[in-house]
Design brief:
This protein is of the alpha+beta class. It is built from 13 helices and ten strands. It folds into two domains: 147 residues, Beta-lactamase; 134 residues, Beta-lactamase, CATH 3.40.710. The protein has a five-stranded antiparallel sheet, sandwiched between helices. A three-stranded antiparallel sheet has the order 4-6-5. A two-stranded antiparallel ribbon has the order 1-10. The structure holds 6-diazenyl-5-OXO-L-norleucine. 6-diazenyl-5-OXO-L-norleucine binds next to loops. Belongs to the glutaminase family. GO terms for molecular function: glutaminase activity.
Length: 305
Amino acid sequence: MEDAALQRILDQIADAAFATADKGRVADYIPDLAGVAPDQFAIAVARPGHPTLTAGRASHRFSIQSVSKVFTLALALGTLGDRLWNRVGREPSGQAFDSMILLEQEQGRPRNPFINAGAIVTTDAVLEGSEPREALAAILRFVQAAANDDDIHINESVARSEIATGHRNFALAHYLRSHDNLRHPPDLTLGVYFHQCAIEMTCAQLAHAGLFLTACEGAPRLVSPGRVRRINALMMTCGHYDGSGDYAYRVGLPGKSGVGGGILTIAPGVASIAVWAPGLNRYGNSKLGTEAMQRLTDLTGWSVF
Ligand code: DON
């Protein structure tokens, strides 16, 4: 698609988002995110060989939260390989992102690497053999390399705010440890996990950081093509938790959401797309972001189906 035509579509999508009355509810269980104004929207599309196209507040930094789980998964698969799957499953959970219920029924093996329990195990795997500071630096370096941009940082205040209030994640981590599925003390692993979630990026940076998952010619190659396919499969089936089926139905592309209101979506072989709108739907995924992505795939025909 030509840049000018795509730009018109993005402008139309941003106009529709700003005009929508119901913006969803901003996450308030992380105190530092509770004050973010819900009437904000941004979208960015990155394609190798094209300028990055944007609409809305695409240079505004937001907390990527669970979108970070895609990058830690790629990193963990790179270091641990398929051994990761001994500790984490690859099935959708059909439960909320912070649910505990299946963890007890399934002896401490989380359903997938994108629900909180599975992401905590994945971060624990990245931590293997290194200090928390080094593991965190490796995660941040991976994100910066993917985005080809060093100006990406961690918001210490957001991380601290979650350390102070993240009782569910502590419960999940202790439960995992009781099943010997956490190799480090819960506060060590969670220290890294909360900081990775507190990475801040703009929509334009996030769209860039997703390029390695498009397998486009000219995109950075950070993991093997086989792993790119499999990470996309997990994003499609598990990337929006118990809203994954709904997202696949509406958008038809692999995506990963975060409670900061960001969504990274991959159109394989075509583009990497980031949207941000902080108000969430009942699954904890960006409400306007999901609607924007549905419009984008309707208007461009970008879908794997
Ligand atoms: O662990 C948490 O609860 C947050 N740091 C991340 C959760 C999240 O982003 C869920 N996604 N929609």
